[in-house]
């Protein structure tokens, strides 16, 4: 026991020493002209100021004091927070090329298959080609309209479920129901499979998906202390969870793709996204030398980003309607007049 405690103590001291060296190395960035911001602590910078309340509330309060363009030191990582529409336009429109890069969090590093996806791919020829595939082929007007029957089916199921719960006066978790509906729409478009939360055959899928979302939101030391953070993430068990979840998705994708490649599979009435990408791989109709990793990376973007953003948008829209009865009444009248 004494030997174990001594080893842990030495490891902790080593980590702190390396963090300190790394922080000093990156500290030279402060000598550049930077926006105003709160003073930070040694080693951790401003990280301790971000956990007291919801992040957006904390950043809003800080921006009221330091302005719409604010500098924060997140461990060893410098960050600039933009808190006004005018400043956001200046950065993302006027200086869009300088701001086009995106850091890759360790919590989704493997899921991008070394940045083969669209969301985290660096700006360049590959990004332009993947973006063209998504806009012209996967999500063009013709393709979106062809999936209309899926959206109508799933929305009908959602309305029936809400009506059934309302008839019995049972409380419902609308956020969860919207998430399930958005997920089923995306999955039917991508895999030709429907995944409704609550069904026994889909429980393992939702456990895997919920874990993925939880991991994306998890605090990872390696994001803020790039050279030594992985040690602490190993001690907390984060690295083990990330690897286990990645392998679960790998197994799911492998089974799904093998099912689409099965020669005994009946020709589908409607080609899904996996079918389209596999056809592009076979026909070599893209400038990209498509591999299965490319397909899995693009589908991961669609599955994770598509479901999460759709759910968040709808939940916030309903929240704002609930807070504004006049607007709610107007929306209800418009819906009932259809």
Automatic annotation (TrEMBL):
Keywords: Heme, Iron, Membrane, Metal-binding, Monooxygenase, Oxidoreductase, Signal, Transmembrane, Transmembrane helix. Pfam families: p450 (PF00067). Its cofactor is heme. It is a single-pass membrane protein. Its main location: membrane. The keyword Transmembrane applies. The keyword Membrane applies. Residues 1-22 form the signal peptide. GO terms for molecular function: heme binding; iron ion binding; oxidoreductase activity, acting on paired donors, with incorporation or reduction of molecular oxygen, reduced flavin or flavoprotein as one donor, and incorporation of one atom of oxygen. One of its GO terms (cellular component) is membrane. SUPFAM superfamilies: Cytochrome P450. It is found in: Membrane. Coiled coil: none annotated. Belongs to the cytochrome P450 family. This is Cytochrome P450 71A9-like. It comes from Nelumbo nucifera. The lineage of its organism: Eukaryota, Viridiplantae, Streptophyta, Embryophyta, Tracheophyta.
């Amino acid at each position: 026991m004494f030997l174990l405690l001594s080893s842990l103590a030495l490891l902790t001291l080593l980590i702190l020493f390396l963090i300190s060296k790394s922080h000093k190395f990156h500290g030279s960035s402060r000598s550049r002209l930077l926006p105003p911001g709160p003073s930070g602590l040694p080693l951790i910078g401003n990280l301790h100021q971000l956990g007291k309340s919801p992040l957006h509330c904390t950043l809003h309060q800080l921006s009221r004091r330091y302005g719409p363009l604010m500098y924060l030191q997140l461990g060893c990582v410098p960050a600039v927070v933009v808190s006004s529409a005018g400043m956001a336009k200046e950065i993302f429109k006027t200086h869009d090329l300088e701001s086009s890069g995106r850091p890759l969090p360790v919590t989704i590093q493997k899921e991008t298959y070394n940045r083969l996806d669209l969301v985290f791919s660096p700006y360049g020829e590959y990004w332009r080609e993947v973006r063209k595939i998504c806009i012209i082929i996967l999500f063009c007007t013709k393709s979106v309209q062809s999936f209309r029957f899926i959206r109508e089916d799933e929305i009908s199921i959602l309305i029936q479920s809400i009506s059934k719960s309302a008839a019995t006066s049972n409380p419902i978790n609308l956020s969860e129901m919207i998430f399930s509906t958005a997920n089923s729409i995306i999955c039917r478009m991508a895999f030709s499979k429907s995944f409704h939360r609550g069904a026994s055959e889909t429980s393992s899928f939702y456990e895997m998906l919920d874990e993925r979302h939880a991991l994306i939101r998890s605090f990872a030391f390696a994001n803020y202390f790039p050279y030594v953070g992985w040690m602490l993430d190993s001690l907390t068990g984060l690295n083990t969870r990330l690897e286990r979840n990645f392998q679960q998705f790998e197994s799911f994708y492998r089974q799904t793709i093998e099912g689409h490649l099965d020669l005994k599979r009946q020709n589908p009435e409607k080609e899904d996204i996996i079918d389209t990408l596999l056809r592009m791989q076979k026909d070599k109709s893209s400038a990209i030398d498509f591999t299965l990793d490319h397909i899995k990376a693009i589908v991961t973007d669609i599955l994770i980003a598509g479901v999460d953003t759709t759910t968040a948008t709808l939940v916030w829209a309903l929240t704002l309607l609930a807070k504004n009865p006049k607007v709610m009444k107007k929306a209800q009248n418009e819906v009932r007049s259809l």
